[in-house]
Amino acid sequence: MTSTIVMINLFGAVALLLFGLAQVKDGVSRAFGAKLRTGLARGTRSGLRSFLSGFVATIALQSSTATALMVASFVERELVKPRMAQIVLLGANVGTAVTAWIVATGIEWLSPLVILAGIVLYRSGSTSRQGGGTALIGIGLMLLSLHLLSSATEPMRQSPALAAFIGLLDNAWPVALAFSAGIAFISSSSLAAVVLILSLASTGILSAGLIIVLVLGANLGGAIPPVVASLSGPPSAKRVTLGNLIVRAIGCAVALPLAGYGADILQMLPLPATKLPVDAHLGFNLILATLAWPFSQLLSRWTLHLIPEDAQPDNAPKYLDSGELSTPVVALANATRETLGIGDLVERMLMRVSDSFETNDPSKLKDVPSLEKRIDSLQQEVKIYLSKLGRQGLTKEDSARSLVVLDYAINLEHIGDIIEKGLLPPLTKKASLGLKFSDDGVEELTKLFHITTDNLRIAQTIFVTRDFNLARQLMDVKVEVRRMEKRSSERHLERLRDGRVDSLQTSALHLDILRDLKRINAHIVSVAHPIMQESGLLIESRLRDAE
């Protein structure tokens, strides 16, 4: 009976830890989701920035799996290079290890205060504050679970059965590694596995060598869930998660025979013995990141050979299943997913032209026409699909949602046209003739390109979540874009009056790019109109105040 109670307490504490982790992830996603995704996508221009982006994202989300899947989606949309994605995941692994180290510093006593602060923040009203409150509640539950884990493992000190099992593992390190990897895989969290090892280690029943082996297993098992989650995704996403698994597997294979020596080294250092699991976890990931970083390009090429590209064409819709038209809710979800894919293609086009503008590299523009054709084709398929759905006799709510999806798809197609017919010619001319804008002009346009890309990512989120606060934020940004375009035009004319040669050579190009980016933002902001209209905050004419 006593052993049953101990196991119930142990599994309950682990379940609470996993629930707390999930709350942190959900809360941070709600509060900072769009900013986090934007920062991760834009923070991968160099190796160091990629590493730090993965590190920060994982500290925020408390999940290297979430970071891996997020960066895999960016690679799929060609927003992040495969090599940089592998470096992002090295940073994510270190981020998880640092989280475990912080959790083990003995701050469990703060859990009631953190939970209380989270509840107060959650009740404050706004979506972002509710997300922050949910994250704080999750952190408090994680700290509380540590206290419960410590209490649950205390009776195990005198357990003959557990001592025999630990002795078996201590004499069969490969089995111990596989056992720990299984725990991390089942819980989908290497952090949870390491915290459990930490609790067992505090009882004094684990040898130092076995602790390191169990930590290695937790690292290996934590790399498997992203691979499983990406199996249904495109080859580019599979390569990212597989590359991370390969790195961890090689690291564990090399470190396993050296675990005994590693234990001796750690015990010689002035570190508390009770924190050996988290110290070993952090040390392993730091060493692995240092050694694997230089081979990130080679790893990307290797995974390309292991998972080649699919031969099927990309123009065909992925989610528009005609068999689901009899179920409007499912059919609308299919159309929404397909339209999000169109938005991803538009984002890829924007990234292409933005990169070409900043680097003066015409090769980055070569895919723009083919991307625009794919957008046209998919947008047409969405229109046909929704027209067929309309014949089924929709409810008022489903009919309104159908119009929102169709309107957004049409606006995305217009953006694709503007990029191809408006932005592509001046940027091609700029690159082919080697024209250079003034430093002020480059700064103004680069900032506007980045804001436009960020706005599109926010619009994608609004399209799915229909978040009122994000919609209002996007409407405010439209006003700021209009002001930026006006200020940039005025400053450009001032440079012309001053006789600046660089401005004279690129005057038409500068004004054309400004105009087109302003038009693109107008189409992006349209996704917020239905939400604002439902709230009665969208007027039909700017002249109403004058009336």
Report a brief summary of the structure:
By secondary structure, the protein is mainly α. It has helices spanning 2-42, 47-61, 64-76, 82-103, 111-122, 127-153, 160-170, 173-187, 190-201, 208-222, 224-229, 235-255, 259-268, 276-292, 296-306, 328-359, 368-390, 396-433, 439-465, 468-497, 501-505, 507-525, 529-534. Helix 18 (396-433) packs antiparallel against helix 22 (507-525).
Could you explain how this protein is built, in words?
By secondary structure, this protein is mainly alpha-helical. 78% of the residues lie in helices and 0% in strands. The protein contains 23 helices and no strands. The protein has helices at residues 2-42, 47-61, 64-76, 82-103, 111-122, 127-153, 160-170, 173-187, 190-201, 208-222, 224-229, 235-255, 259-268, 276-292, 296-306, 328-359, 368-390, 396-433, 439-465, 468-497, 501-505, 507-525, 529-534. Helix 8 (173-187) crosses helix 9 (190-201) and helix 8 crosses helix 10. Mean pLDDT is 82; it is low at 541-547.
